[in-house]
Design goal:
The chain has 14 helices and no strands. By secondary structure, it is mainly alpha-helical. The chain has a single domain (3-287), classed as Farnesyl Diphosphate Synthase (Orthogonal Bundle). Helix 4 (63-86) packs antiparallel against helix 5. The termini are far apart. The model has no long low-confidence stretch (mean pLDDT 92).
């Protein structure tokens, strides 16, 4: 099943979930707010939320339920992330909607009967996710942001692996879990750094410290940030960090024989280069008063 068809079917399944009227309204509002329409989950800057199980060999007849579980897990996290980071949504509604989406995520995976190994892994993954969210909040106002801190923050994205892990456990292929972990680690690191690069000015203006801003010495304001980026070569330094991790995804994909991951890295690299060119052009146009 190709990614476009899988996304179409997943969006239809999300809209068809049997929920009480008020909760259904909250989900519909969420889908509209985040722009969950065709092209959302398959965007070049999106993580492979729906596609990852297929990359590890899940058969076509399992892909719809695995993709739906992936989308539900993503949306459950997105509700919390938007509330915690940006204050979007009513806290009570957000808590209830996120919990309901997570319940449906787990129910979809339970239908595979993946066994105790998976459920132990799932519990640890969600615990690490919660810890990472709390750590990231503290780091936003901390005096430092180390690579070890970044490693811990990346646990917030590891629920991405759960649908694929459920299928591997249910299918007797738990031996491939280390391959899944390695791939997801590379994917989420490249994705996080790319996203943080795009959000540099927003994060700086809001006083949110990130690992990339720390590499520039935590500039105090956007004026200082632009000077570091364009006058002192900081943009090239940060771009090289992201490119390094995208190349790591491509290299690992060759080792694991996962062509789709290499294609993912290539699309992200092209998007990175295009966005860097646009940023540089906009900066020099502003200097020339154009």
């Amino acid at each position: 099943m190709d990614a476009i068809t899988l996304e179409h079917d997943t969006l239809a399944s999300l809209h068809a979930l049997e929920l009480p009227p008020t909760m259904a309204g909250l989900l519909a509002a969420l889908l509209e707010r985040v722009g969950a329409a065709p092209g959302y989950f398959t965007h070049p800057l999106a993580l492979p939320v729906l596609q990852l199980p297929a990359w590890l060999g899940a058969p076509a007849h399992h892909l719809p339920s695995l993709a739906l579980a992936g989308a539900l897990g993503y949306l459950s996290v997105r509700v919390q992330d938007d509330l915690i980071d940006d204050g979007v949504g009513d806290p009570g509604e957000a808590a209830l909607l996120s919990a309901l989406l997570l319940h449906h995520h787990d129910a979809a995976l339970a239908a595979l009967t993946p066994g105790p190994l998976f459920w132990s892994r799932s519990a640890k993954t969600w615990a690490a996710y919660g810890e990472a969210m709390l750590i990231e909040r503290r780091l936003h106002a901390a005096s430092h942001y180390t690579t070890a801190d970044l490693d811990r923050v990346l646990d917030r994205s590891r629920p991405l692996a759960l649908p694929t892990a459920a299928w591997l456990c249910a299918d007797g292929r738990a031996a491939r879990l280390p391959d899944l972990d390695a791939l997801v680690s590379a994917l989420v690191r490249a994705h996080q750094l790319h996203t943080d690069l795009l959000d540099l000015e927003t994060d700086c203006a809001a006083g949110r410290r990130t690992w990339l801003l720390a590499q520039l010495g935590d500039p105090p304001d956007t004026t200082a940030l632009r000077r570091l980026l364009f006058a002192q070569g900081g943009l090239d330094t940060l771009l090289n960090h992201v490119r390094c991790h995208l190349r790591a995804v491509a290299d690992l994909s060759q080792v694991l024989g996962i062509d789709e991951a290499a294609e993912f890295a290539a699309r992200r690299m092209a998007a990175l280069d295009a966005s860097a060119a646009r940023v540089q052009e906009a900066f020099f146009r502003s200097l020339l008063g154009m």
